[in-house]
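REQUEST ID: PR-0412
SUBMITTED BY: lab tech R.K.
PRIORITY: routine
TASK: structure prediction, single protein chain
INPUT:
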Amino acid sequence: MQLVYVAISIYGIWRWRSGRGEAAVRPVERTSRAEALWVAAAVAVATIAFVGLLTRYSDSDVPAADALTTAMSLGAQWLMSRRLLENWYVWIAADLIYVPLYLYKGLHVTAALYALFLALCLSGLAGWRRELAARRSAG
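STATUS: complete
OUTPUT:
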């Protein structure tokens, strides 16, 4: 799974650095309806696949929640690699599941870490929204 995240991250670095025109970094954009539907479908399919894998090959007592959060994280990472604003909404939704999930599992430090990630996501969303608004008002 980590190799998938690495691959998406390498793609993201390349994409972010292939800005448009004189920009050093690609500007924040909104997700198109088509891409949003594609990502939602991919998350749904991945969730179903991961539930099967986790049920068969792991000792998870909550395979559906583990599968959903993993699939959502992959979808969010994909959107982030493309510098699309909506990645933050997916990360926020995932973190809102992760925190109570880790508390349920007795992983209190990990739950606290994901609460911190949630705060960072809210900050990232605010920053990207400001960037998008500034670009729209300038152009």
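NOTES: The longest helix spans residues 108-138.
REVIEWED BY: pending
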